[in-house]
Amino acid sequence: MKLSKNQLSNLGLLIFIVVFLFTPVGKTLKIWTNRLLAFSPSVVSVEDRSSLSTYEWNLNQISGDRTGSFDFRDAEGKVVLVNLWATWCPPCIAEMPSLQELYNDYKEEVVFLFVTHEEQERVLSFLNKNGYNIPVFQPLTTIPEEINSNSIPATFLIDKNGKIAIKKKGAADWNSNTVRNQIDQLVGQ
């Protein structure tokens, strides 16, 4: 039986879709696609920034320079970057190298909170496998409404007054000049 050109192209497309959706090769392709499409996030204009209504949020730190409970109120008055992510999420994985670079350079001036609902063992395995040393937290109480998201990754850069300077859902290039300039500006205030 000989297949027509149209049938061959449809078969090829079907094979590509199966590989893309259901194999580890597909996950790798999704990660690289997200990295290619990740641009610097936009900064919210000063007059349009929303404010956190509360710093009432407790977390459990499972990696980084320490472990144990963390009270988000301890971040009040500081510049904070909150990243909601998961190890199974291709866009999250795609943006992680740029977030790690940002963390390496700003960990003394900015409070970084990488927040996941996943099990500690899975997260630690992912971090070790990829050579990441970011501080990862699990939420113990409800996240403040202004930085809550039903989709991941979701990242928020919050100034010292609790105003959200950057709000980005989806993969982004966090190691960009735009982000670095904004952080420098916020830290200097």
UniProtKB/TrEMBL annotation:
<dbReference type="InterPro" id="IPR036249">
    <property type="entry name" value="Thioredoxin-like_sf"/>
</dbReference>
<dbReference type="InterPro" id="IPR050553">
    <property type="entry name" value="Thioredoxin_ResA/DsbE_sf"/>
</dbReference>
<feature type="domain" description="Thioredoxin">
    <location>
        <begin position="32"/>
        <end position="188"/>
    </location>
</feature>
<dbReference type="Pfam" id="PF08534">
    <property type="entry name" value="Redoxin"/>
</dbReference>
<dbReference type="GO" id="GO:0016491">
    <property type="term" value="F:oxidoreductase activity"/>
</dbReference>
<dbReference type="InterPro" id="IPR013766">
    <property type="entry name" value="Thioredoxin_domain"/>
</dbReference>
<dbReference type="InterPro" id="IPR013740">
    <property type="entry name" value="Redoxin"/>
</dbReference>
<protein>
    <submittedName>
        <fullName>Redoxin domain-containing protein</fullName>
    </submittedName>
</protein>
